[in-house]
Write a structure and sequence with these properties.
273 residues; alpha/beta; Rossmann fold; 6-stranded mixed β-sheet; 9 strands; 32% helix; binds adenosine-5'-triphosphate
Length: 273
């Protein structure tokens, strides 16, 4: 299994410390002074305030922070689904909307929103149809294998467990080999055991495919278990207050070791600050 990439080595830093931001041509996501407000006048909500971040190609970044601090809004700006009120963002060297148009962004959310009448396989194939392409059956088989669903692919969503449905969501997000994988609380609705199992599977799949990944989660241990780097957002103002590099090789240990506990503690302290 691949070890942690050399770029993941580092220290805990301020989000605005340019020296510690990934430099050079391998920057996949580059947001500069991003702000987003909804509405106007006295009813305006400043959802994200002055966020700058860089994410390297093939890096796994997790975002944690209190409810309502702007995590989803930030992810939606990265996906090209929201336009920043201020600041700029590029993904793979161009505007996010271009990447989205080229179907190079894979997304999965807490609610997998599967087509109820279609088999799990057809739900995965649907990604191709939505992009106006013929499904690549070999690739669909490969991704179903990777998420452990090949033998269950004939089931309909109502016959599948919550964990299986989330695996379909992950397969859908990955099947077209996206440059960016954006995950918004994908396992938030699952029980602790299934969630832990899917964390392991996501780690394994990510190690094989290695897309640049941004994961939003409320679970600090999930963030530390999966990410190269954890970004902590605060509620007031809605911005990045801390970045924590996770100094652990992959696969991450089953039993939390000292560096895992230390990284979790750092995240908790940043959240409580
Ligand atoms: N489309 C919208 N219109 C108006 N306000 C919005 C919209 N989307 C989000 N907001 C507001 O922006 C703020 C940030 O919301 P966002 O969903 O980005 O936070 P979050 O950190 O992802 O929250 P949670 O962890 O609860 O999912 C909140 O105050 C929210 O009410």
């Amino acid at each position: 299994m691949a070890g942690r990439p050399p770029h993941a080595r580092g220290r805990s830093v301020s989000a605005h410390d340019e020296e510690t931001s990934p430099a050079g041509t391998d920057v996949a996501i580059h947001g500069q002074a991003l702000s987003k407000s909804y509405g106007s006048g006295r009813r305006a909500v400043r959802a994200v305030s002055d966020v700058s971040l860089k994410v390297r190609t093939s890096e796994f970044l997790a975002i944690i922070g209190p409810s309502g601090c702007g995590k989803t809004t930030l992810l939606r700006m990265i996906a090209g689904l929201e336009t920043p009120t201020d600041g700029t963002i590029t993904c793979c060297g161009g505007p996010p909307a271009r990447l989205a148009r080229e179907h190079r962004i894979g997304m999965a959310f807490q609610d997998p929103a599967l087509l109820p009448w279609a088999s799990l396989r057809r739900n995965v194939e649907f990604v191709y149809r939505a992009a106006g392409r013929r499904p690549d059956r070999e690739r669909v088989d490969e991704i179903l294998d990777l998420v452990g669903l090949r033998s269950l692919a004939h089931l309909r969503p109502h016959e599948a467990s919550g964990g299986m449905r989330q695996r379909v969501a992950l397969a859908r997000a990955l099947v077209m080999e996206p440059s960016l994988l954006l995950l918004d609380e994908p396992f938030g609705a699952l029980d602790a055991i299934t969630r832990r199992r899917l964390n392991r599977e996501l780690e394994r799949v990510w190690t094989v495919v290695r897309p640049t990944t941004v994961l939003i989660t409320h679970a600090v241990d999930e963030a530390v278990m999966l990410a190269d780097r954890v970004v902590v957002m605060s509620g007031r103002p809605s911005t990045i207050v801390r970045e924590i590099t996770v100094p652990m090789a992959r696969p991450r240990p089953e039993v939390p070791d000292e560096s895992f506990r230390h990284a979790v503690q750092e995240c908790i302290e940043a959240l409580d600050a």
